[in-house]
Amino acid sequence: MAKSTHAERVLIGRLGAYVLHSRYDSRDLIRPARQAFESKFEREVDPDGLLDPEERARRADMARNAHFTRLALASAKARRKRQVSAK
């Protein structure tokens, strides 16, 4: 049996994704991952579970904002570095 090429593997993967999303709601597919991601921030700000739920949610929201701001900062630095090295 012949090995598949990279292009064929890409098409096979794309086909699988189209079939999956034609059969199921995307929101249902990612719900467990989203819940795990969100709970990560709650555990980070309240590892012992002592905070009031509203306060834990507020702090988790701030921790999530900080996480994405760190990513944006790293991205901006990487873009600037690429621009400088391209000159």
Could you explain the architecture of this structure?
The protein is an all-alpha fold. It has three helices and no strands. It has one domain. It has helices at 6-23, 26-45, 53-86. The protein is flat.
Structure at a glance:
The chain contains three helices and no strands.
What is the total tally of β strands?
Answer: 0
Radius of gyration over all CA atoms, rounded? 21 Å
Reported for the largest beta sheet, the result is: none
The percent range for strand residues is under 5%
Q: Would you identify the regions where 5 or more consecutive residues have pLDDT less than 50?
A: none
Secondary structure category: mainly alpha
Arithmetic mean of pLDDT: 95
N→C terminal distance: 48 Å
Query: Domains counted in the coordinates: how many?
Result: 1
Offer a few descriptive terms.
mainly alpha; 3 helices
